[in-house]
Amino acid sequence: MRFDRNDYYTFLINGDLPGVIAYLKQFPDKENLYKSFINRFERGQFDTFEDDLVNNILKAYQSYYRDAFYLRLDKRQAEAALRDQLTEILGIKDPMSLEFLERDKLAKVFADKHLHFMGGRTDGYYGPYVWKSTEITTYEVELPDGIETYTVKLLDGFISKSWLDYISYGELGTGGWTDSDGVICCIRQGYDFDSEDFRVSLLKHEAQHARDIRQNGAMSSEDLEYRAKLVELIYSTERNLLPHFIREAEGANAESSGHGSASRRLLEGLNRKLDLWHGKIEELSVCQIQSIAKELLQESNSENK
Q1: What element of type H or E holds 154?
Q2: In sequence order, what DSSP letters do the residues of 118-151 get, joined into one string?
């Protein structure tokens, strides 16, 4: 058996660290990577940071990742342990939710250290984004409904990029998001700005989110992700994104994840269209993928009027 990076990534996307470790153990050429997972998650050898308070806070999150993805604790139990660790570190005696703790306490702690902090859940799990600087610029973004000018924040100097980046040693994770003001935030170090990964999978994907939110603020997370993924397929000519979407759709957390449920819906739509000419997803050309994605987006436009 040969090492398959897609299988490896599937374990990671599903947050299945015991599966990752068991898979890597089969391959002698992956011994160093296997040992790094053992050291980090079995032995609890976490990353450290210069500032003591920042170090203690981020170590609490690393302990949470170990609880959630390696020890496989109940999600609520892992979150409660994280909340208790953070309140102890900050010397807080009054009970409060993790959402309040992150928004009203931790954000200020990091701001006092001249760092930006964004908490909340990513695909169902907590994990902060912490970075040093932000540059604001604008792009002219082509979408199926026309050209739009969007403000973009380029974020630099990350010391934390949430759970998937952490458990994958930086190989996987989000490249950006849209903030509460509808502004696209891009992790600068993760992109070649001439690549489709940036131009399509971040810029067009997030721009479609911002446009949909402005036009229909009541749109569900699944609808938003579904439409943005269709836009990715419409404009992607250099890459086949379907294997990635299939992994998301088949993931263990697909039903509770906006990305996973949207990918499942997208594949159902593709298969529905393919039934008309008895085709198979793996046989689709780029042009065929683009054509079907346009049809599905038009259907979605009609549904959301």
Answers
A1: strand 146-156
A2: E-SEETTEE--EEESEEEEEEEEEEETTEEEEEE
Calpha distance 123→118 (Å, rounded): 15
Whether the CB-CB separation of 243 and 250 falls below 8 Å is answered with no
Q: Which residues contact 179 (CB under 8 A, 6 or more apart)?
A: 153, 185
Q: What is the pLDDT of residue 278?
A: 54
Distance (Å, rounded) from C-alpha 167 to C-alpha 238? 28
CA distances 216 to 3, 63, 150, 178, 184, Å, are: 45, 39, 18, 15, 18
Q: Quick check: helix, strand or coil at residue 51? A: coil
Q: Which helix (H) or strand (E) holds 167?
A: helix 162-167
What values do phi and psi take at 57, rounded to 5?
Answer: -65, -50
Coil/strand/helix, residue 155: strand
Q: Residue 256 pLDDT more than 80?
A: no
Residue 194 to residues 198, 203, 230: CA-CA distances in angstroms? 7, 11, 21
pLDDT at 283 over 90: no
- CA–CA separation, 178 and 258 (whole Å): 14
Contact assessment for residue 183 and residue 161, using Cβ atoms and an 8 Å cutoff: no
Q: What are phi and psi of 252, to 5 degrees?
A: -65, -30
Amino acid at 130: V
Long-range contacts of 37-43 (CB under 8 A, 24+ apart): 40/66, 41/17, 41/66, 41/69, 41/70, 41/167, 42/70
Tell me if 57 sits within 8 A of 109, measured CB to CB. yes
The model's confidence at residue 169, banded by pLDDT at 50, 70 and 90, is very high
Residue in this structure with the two tokens 């699944």, named with its chain if needed: 222
> What mean pLDDT comes out for the span 199-227?
89
pTM beyond 0.85, yes or no: no
Q: For 98-157, write each residue's pLDDT tens digit.
A: 999 999 999 999 999 999 999 999 989 999 999 999 999 998 999 999 887 888 899 999
Locate 226 and state its tokens: 């579904």
